[in-house]
Amino acid sequence: MEEYDLYINVKKPAIGIYVRKGAQLPDLADKGDWVFDGTSAQDLLPPSVIEGVKADGHAFRDMD
To answer: 15, 31, 40, 64: which has the fewest Cβ within 10 Å?
Structure first.
């Protein structure tokens, strides 16, 4: 089963970004604002996150 790493934006904690486990963050202008917050199994995430990661290599998620 696939696993995904979650990074949270420290300036806007309501925003998270998922990437495949072990993948680097995409080229973000504010890369230093993101901190690792753990790894989740595929079955614990919404399908939209999985689809976004497969299509773009990352997926943003509203954490509220």
So the answer is: 64
The size of the chain, in residues, is 64
Read off the amino acid at residue 64: D
Alpha-carbon torsion angle 44, 31, 21, 10, nearest 10:
-40
Tell if the pTM clears 0.85, that is, is over it: yes
- Tokens representing residue 10 in the block: 């420290």
Number of domains observed in the structure of the chain: 1
**What is the span of the domain harbouring residue 41?**
1-24+31-60
DSSP structural state of residue 35? E
pLDDT tens per residue, the chain (64 residues)? 899 999 999 999 999 999 999 998 888 878 889 999 999 999 999 999 999 999 999 999 999 8
